[in-house]
């Protein structure tokens, strides 16, 4: 923003922070021709509201907030008290919570001009410029003759300029650091619906302040805004259904928390990241004192970034995903490009990570191996078993001892057999292949025996299984023969059969 715009913004923000309650009166011309003013009849204010305003005048804002919160638990449908609560929350700098309250009021009274105006102020403080502009314009439409409508016209112009500048900055071309933070595989959330977040109450935790939760909510907003709403979050009260859980802690003795003043742990399945836990320190680990608001905001941004799939750290110190926090001022353009590279429009089947890190160095073989495993999981979850098997086999070429890849091939082959044709000879071949890759996979064993029985073949006979092995060899199915010889040995120990099986296994390893 240029200096002129900054001056205009500062001047109008300062002007609009001043609020006053006007005395409503009526002036009429008396019989003697002079002016006579009489106060209009005004409904007596609710005693709770009167007490709250007195507390506000005495600068006892937290006490006022607590009184209103208690009153709303008793009278949840009282929109006047709720709007006053929103005003108090706004004055405390808890803008998201103020916006939550005005939203409820506006659901009941969409034309309530004061609620519209307050929502705009809260949204502006949350850096939701487009929504703030819409609220201010609605207030102007509802109250065209109100002096404040003219004052907000200039502020709207400033906000529109700021919004355009941010959009330009956000979409500016440049590099990202996805390769540096992707870790061993490309992990992301399925974002067909908002990610549910549960925030544990920090009351009673040493160093905790209510404004910390405001920083947390703002940090979630920043990541959502960076993706133009692709990432959405909903805050819930039931921890049992939460996908993300945020916990406040003052444990300065936890080594994992010290470097970043926080910690994020994720767990994933076939659809990517499924759960995340975020721990946030309420004390400064380096100063053994209260954590500053800016540091808390940066910490929240950083740990949420980890929880969203940015597993490593950026090599650039001005990015929020740098390993050192302190100089950052929110998300950098490179942060924005990186999160969009992770949650881009490419499908799971076509997206590819680079094979070099941020500095152009080839990635370790172990990293490439794990990426193949993860891509195999994604393909298998979409019933693309042939693609999944290709990915798992690629992982095994890099690391022949990778048990996850070997077991996953067996599972994919078993599921392919069931999905494609439940009683064909091809299904039996697939079950045998599954057992070749994982001889301990009892599900495939049971399925194979069941399918053999359906064809009138006795699966528990040593002689029958040896005969099946010879049939496999006649069809050049060496793997199938190994499996059948192995199954035969379950029912009878026979040295000649064992030697045949071992010889075939040696041949396959060449």
CATH architecture descriptor of the domain at 3-170: Alpha Horseshoe
Q: So what's the overall shape?
A: elongated
Share of helix, binned: 40-55%
Could you say what the CATH topology of the domain at 3-170 is called? Serine Threonine Protein Phosphatase 5, Tetratricopeptide repeat
CATH-wise, what's the superfamily of the domain at 3-170?
Answer: Tetratricopeptide repeat domain
**Can you count the beta strands?**
9
The H/E string reads HEEHHHHHHHHEHEEEEEEHHHHHHHHHH
Give the percentage of residues in beta strands. 5-15%
Distance between the termini: 68 Å
Rg from alpha-carbon coordinates: 33 Å
* Overall pLDDT score: 81
Strands across the major sheet, in which order?
4-3-5-7-6
The class by helix and strand makeup works out as alpha/beta
- Major pleated sheet: 5 strands, mixed
- Tally of helical segments: 20
Assigned CATH class of the domain at 3-170:
Mainly Alpha
Low-confidence regions: 1-43, 346-351
Describe this entry's structure for a reader.
This protein has 510 residues and is α/β, with parallel strands linked by helices. Among the domains are: 3-170, Serine Threonine Protein Phosphatase 5, Tetratricopeptide repeat; 178-342, Collagenase (Catalytic Domain), CATH 3.40.390. Helix content is 55%, strand content 9%. It has helices at 3-16, 47-57, 61-74, 79-91, 95-108, 113-125, 129-142, 147-170, 178-181, 210-226, 293-307, 333-342, 365-381, 385-398, 403-420, 425-437, 442-454, 462-474, 478-491, 495-509; strands spanning 25-29, 35-39, 195-199, 233-235, 244-249, 262-269, 272-281, 283-284, 289-290. Strand 3, helix 10 and strand 4 form a beta-alpha-beta unit. The longest helix is centred in the first third of the chain and has 24 residues, at 147-170.
């Amino acid at each position: 923003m240029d200096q002129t715009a900054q001056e205009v913004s500062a001047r109008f923000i300062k002007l609009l922070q001043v609020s006053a309650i006007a005395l409503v009166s009526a002036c009429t011309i008396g019989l003697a021709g002079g002016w006579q003013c009489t106060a209009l009849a005004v409904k007596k204010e609710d005693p709770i509201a009167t007490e709250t305003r007195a507390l506000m005048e005495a600068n006892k804002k937290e006490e006022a907030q607590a009184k209103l919160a208690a009153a709303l638990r008793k009278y949840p449908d009282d929109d006047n008290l709720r709007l006053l609560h929103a005003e108090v929350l706004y004055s405390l700098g808890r803008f998201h919570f103020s916006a939550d309250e005005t939203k409820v009021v506006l659901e009941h009274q969409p034309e309530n001009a004061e609620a519209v105006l307050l929502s705009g102020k809260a949204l502006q403080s949350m850096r939701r410029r487009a929504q703030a502009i819409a609220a201010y314009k609605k207030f102007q439409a509802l109250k065209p003759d109100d002096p404040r409508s003219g004052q907000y016209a200039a502020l709207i112009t400033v906000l529109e300029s700021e919004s355009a500048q941010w959009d330009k900055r956000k979409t500016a071309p440049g590099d990202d650091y996805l390769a540096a933070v992707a870790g061993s595989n490309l992990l992301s959330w399925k974002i067909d619906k908002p990610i549910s977040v549960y925030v544990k109450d920090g009351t009673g935790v040493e160093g905790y302040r209510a404004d910390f939760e405001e920083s947390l909510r703002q940090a979630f907003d920043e990541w959502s805004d960076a993706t133009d709403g692709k990432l959405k979050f909903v805050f819930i009260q039931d921890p049992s259904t939460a996908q993300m859980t945020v916990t406040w802690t003052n444990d300065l003795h936890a080594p994992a928390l010290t470097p970043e003043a926080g910690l994020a742990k994720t767990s994933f399945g076939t659809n990517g990241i499924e759960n995340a836990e975020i721990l946030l320190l309420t004390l400064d680990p380096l100063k053994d004192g209260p954590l500053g608001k800016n540091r808390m905001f940066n910490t929240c941004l950083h740990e949420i970034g980890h929880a969203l799939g940015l597993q490593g750290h950026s090599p650039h110190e001005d990015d929020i995903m740098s390993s050192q926090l302190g100089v950052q001022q929110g998300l950098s353009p490179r942060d924005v490009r990186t999160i969009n590279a992770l949650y881009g429009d490419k499908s799971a089947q076509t997206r590819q990570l680079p094979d070099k890190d941020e500095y152009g160095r080839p990635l370790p073989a172990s990293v490439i191996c794990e990426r193949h495993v993860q891509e195999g999981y994604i393909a298998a979850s979409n019933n693309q078993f042939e693609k999944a098997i290709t990915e798992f086999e690629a992982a095994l070429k890099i690391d022949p001892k990778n048990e996850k890849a070997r077991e996953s091939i067996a599972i994919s082959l078993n599921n392919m057999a069931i999905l494609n044709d439940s009683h064909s000879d091809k299904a039996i071949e697939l079950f045998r292949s599954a057992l070749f890759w994982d001889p301990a996979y009892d599900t495939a064993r049971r399925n194979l025996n069941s399918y053999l029985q359906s064809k009138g073949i006795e699966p528990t006979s040593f002689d029958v299984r040896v005969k099946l092995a010879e049939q496999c060899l006649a069809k050049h199915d060496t793997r199938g023969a190994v499996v059948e010889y192995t199954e035969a040995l379950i029912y009878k120990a026979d040295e000649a059969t064992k030697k045949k099986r071992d010889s075939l296994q040696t041949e396959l390893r060449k």
